Prior knowledge:
There is one protein chain. With 114 residues, the chain is of the alpha+beta class. The chain contains four helices and two strands, in the order αβααβα. The chain has one domain. The chain has helices spanning 4-13, 33-42, 58-72, 110-113; strands at 17-30, 79-91. It has a two-stranded antiparallel sheet. The radius of gyration is 23 Å and the shape is elongated. GO terms for molecular function: methyltransferase activity. Residues 94-114 are annotated as: Disordered. Keywords: Methyltransferase, Transferase.
Amino acid sequence: MTDTRDISNLLGRAGFTLLTVDTDEVKVGYPSMWELIEDLQDMGESNAVIGRRTRINPDTLAAASAIYKELHGNEDGSVPATFQIIYMIGWRPADSQPKPLERGSGKVSLKEVL
């Protein structure tokens, strides 16, 4: 899974400020590996290598499906997949953005509040 600190660092290096990065993890059960592959392709999560071979032997795919189901299958016969959804917010620097106050300018002690 992706580390939110890495994403935040990339946004900061790209020049964004007031960064917020959050993630959700969604677990989905599929009837078989074939439906999972179809969903991945529909999401654009497939091999993007230009020079790749376009075909995989059907026997290889059938073996992969059986192995995946054996190793990771649920009791109901479905196969699980976990998706990480990443939410990112960053703002272009502007004069109107809130600026941090000078260190020591607080009027309430955190020791008193906590």
